[in-house]
Sequence to fold (174 residues):
Amino acid sequence: MISNTMAAALNEQIALEAHASSLYLSMSSWCEQEGLTGCAQFMRRQSEEEREHMLRIFDYVNERNAHALTPATHQPKHKFESVQKMFEEVYAHEKKVTAAIMKLVEQCYKEPDHTTLLFLQWYVEEQREEEALMSTLMDKIKLIGTGGQSLYYIDKEVERLNATEMAAEAEGAE
Ligand code: FEO
Fold:
């Protein structure tokens, strides 16, 4: 059993992960429209990952005899100023998610709730990886700059990064 406070906090996290999934799917669609197929694939995979993050908490809440709530769906924005700005937004969103996970961890210490603390360790690690990935991506985008061929090179770079991530995941699943 988890406390009502913890259940409410975890339900908020479910909503945050669901919003990330929805926003990233919208970004994927925009990239597709812009002809940025590498970026579209990358954001599609990110969207699917966020849904998995959401479901993992969802199942945990129900398993602990609390009530996991299906979040409301708010339509995310579907137009972005540029691919550079879009990735800046992704990075900012990931930092926001990390801050929310850290708040949950603090709540675990406060109660204390060692079981949820253990459960959240996976998220602490996942957020470290996600932030590192986005930071690498932002560095590459800055290096490529905004010259005439920049969109082509950004798309290729993101496609390459996506393939590396997928290969690492496949290796981890073996
Ligand atoms: Fe599940 Fe990328 O936050």
Q: What stands out?
A: The chain has a mean pLDDT of 96.
